[in-house]
Amino acid sequence: MTAPFRMPVPSADATPALVDPFGRRVTYLRLSVTDRCDLRCVYCMSDDMTFLPKRDLLTLEELDRVCRAFIDKGIRKIRITGGEPLVRRDVMGLFRSLSRHLEAGSLSELTLTTNGTLLGRYAAELASCGVRRINVSLDTLDPDRFRQITRRGDLGVVLAGIDAAQRAGLSVKINAVALKGVNEHEIAPMLEWAHGRGMDMTLIEVMPMGDIEPDRLQQFLPLSVVRERLDERYTLVDTQEHTGGPARYVRVAETGGRLGFITPLTHNFCESCNRVRLTCTGQLYMCLGQEDAGDLRAAMRGSEGDARLSDAIDEAISRKPRGHDFIIERSAGRAAVPRHMSVTGG
Ligand code: SAM
Ligand code: SF4
Q1: Considering the domain boundaries, does residue 2 fall inside one?
Q2: Residue nearest to ligand 1 atom 4, measured at CA
Q3: Is residue 135 in a domain?
Q4: CB-based burial of residue 72 (10 Å sphere; 0-12 exposed, 13-18 middle, 19+ buried)?
Q5: Whether the CB of 87 sits within 6 Å of ligand 2
Q6: H-helix or E-strand containing 301?
Q7: Three-state SS at 112
Q8: Residue 88's pLDDT band (boundaries 50, 70, 90)?
Q9: In terms of residue numbers, what domain contains 94?
């Protein structure tokens, strides 16, 4: 049995800060705990993926250690992602361990992005570790289309996982990738379904990452087009809510729910970027759209103390670029960034 989560006590000491060369405070770490997944979404992976050998992955102890180092430097929000984070063996051990920072008040949010297939098993335990909100990626409510998009998934299992998450008291946000000719006609019904169940929804544009077939220009559906169509049907009220990320939010007057648009290709969001991404092999990417990374695994494995790790984090943050360079037309449908999204964790 997991001990019940205790409410955090505010931290009394001076707040540390990680500040990049452009004066942006980095407070948000996205941590990929595996490159593996039980699905093969067409925009994310190829059908015959080769996954990393286990020895290349950070161990659970190393993941915990690197999180502590980041929290000591002022990271306040950690999102666990992947691949599919819940397929990592004993990932709940990591959540249990990280929950101590929530209890201490040094971390304000611990969350995850998941495809939902294992929520039926883990939702209650996630809640008991202090997780309050999760993102579930779901692009369709049609079982056949779900199987086509994910190449192997069972929609019923994911819907049961969402039920389990809501029963456990987790607030769920649905993330849907808008795919031309695939799910574009489902966006309005999905919006009503999500808002009807008290879940926010965010739409994501396909990003040119990883060398996967089919041609990305065929999948690309600009969210400006989606928004125009939704505008004809609903009253979308702009909100000032920003998360420091690429999402812009509206409130849908008819449903009362929130709808986000993540438009990395058509909208520049870099000026307010507050995040960095760590891969499951310990590479710290300062920008989703750039190749530069710092090697935190080498820093951790090269020394038992944390001084080298701390220096490696500072050094990497000092190289955080001003912004990204995704241009799907210019990359002619090929990957602008050769990493798969499952490597950096989206
Ligand atoms: N497996 C988990 C999931 O699907 O939620 C977490 C990892 S997944 C890489 C994180 C998010 O990235 C998902 O919402 C997924 O839809 C999105 N994603 C993956 N590849 C993408 C791409 N090429 N363009 C835009 N979004 C992508
Ligand atoms: Fe797996 Fe998530 Fe990528 Fe789909 S988007 S293949 S669920 S990692």
Answers
A1: no
A2: 115
A3: yes
A4: middle
A5: no
A6: helix 296-301
A7: strand
A8: very high
A9: 18-344
Q: Is residue 7 in a domain?
A: no
Q: Is 44 in the pocket of ligand 2 (CB under 6 A)?
A: yes
Of 58-72, 110-124, 215-229, the poorest mean pLDDT is in 215-229
CATH code, domain with 195:
3.20.20.70
Average pLDDT, the chain: 88
- pLDDT tens per residue across span 19-53: 999 999 999 999 999 999 999 999 899 999 999 99
Per the structure, the count of domains in the chain is: 1
Please indicate whether residue 212, judged by its CB atom, sits closer than 6 Å to ligand 2.
no
Instruction: Determine the distance separating the centroid of ligand 2 and the alpha carbon of 237, expressed in angstroms.
Output: 31
Residue 77: which of 150, 27, 117, 127 has the closest Cα? 27
Q: Which residues pair with 174 in a beta bridge?
A: 136, 201
Q: Is the CB of 32 under 6 A from ligand 1?
A: no
Cα of 193 vs its chain's centroid, Å:
22
Q: pLDDT (tens digit, 9 = 90+) per residue, 273-301?
A: 899 999 999 999 998 777 899 999 999 99
279 Cβ inside 6 Å of ligand 1: no
Please indicate, yes or no, whether the overall pTM of this predicted structure exceeds 0.70.
yes
Establish if 105 belongs to a structural domain.
yes
- DSSP-derived secondary structure letter, 271: G
